[in-house]
């Protein structure tokens, strides 16, 4: 279960980086409403990944929390490094958006962890 959860976390982190690489200019737009939409989407996607990710990793019952942590850990480590080197990793994006990217990653991964803590059945 642990190896599958870590690999799933690496796949999630790679998908997030690829998404921002290809769709970053459309994602980071000026205005208040798009940012609220982006953060709502980050919460929804994070919660969905937290609910489904441990199941895909093979965790059952009390293992769900540990699986959610192992899924989130690679992404949190990678996103911390990416946020500190935002202008190098995402050359086509405005470097000022690094703090928004970092906040969005913390927001989404927090919801992933919250989703992993929820129990579907007793």
Walk me through this protein's architecture.
There is one protein chain. This protein is an all-alpha fold and 122 residues long. It is 80% helix and 0% strand. The chain has five helices and no strands. Helix 2 crosses helix 3, helix 2 (32-56) packs parallel to helix 5 (98-117) and helix 3 (63-84) packs antiparallel against helix 5. It starts with a helix and ends in a 5-residue tail after the last helix.
Topology (elements, then pairings):
Elements (H helix, E strand, L loop, with lengths): L1 H26 L4 H25 L6 H22 L1 H4 L8 H20 L5
Helix pairs in contact: 1-2, 1-3, 2-3, 2-5, 3-5
Structural classification: mainly alpha
How do the SSEs run, as a string of H and E?
A: HHHHH
Approximate strand percentage: under 5%
Instruction: Choose one word for the global shape.
Output: elongated
Q: Give the N-to-C terminal Cα separation.
A: 21 Å
Q: Summarize the main sheet.
A: none
Unreliable residue stretches: none
- What Rg, in angstroms, do the CA atoms define? 15 Å
* Oligomeric state of the chains in view: single chain
Q: How many DSSP-defined strands?
A: 0
Number of helices: 5
Helix content: over 70%
Residue-averaged pLDDT: 87
Q: What are its keywords?
A:
single chain, 122 residues, mainly alpha, 5 helices, 0% strand, elongated
Task: Write a brief caption for the model.
This protein is mostly helical and 122 residues long. It has helices at residues 2-27, 32-56, 63-84, 86-89, 98-117.
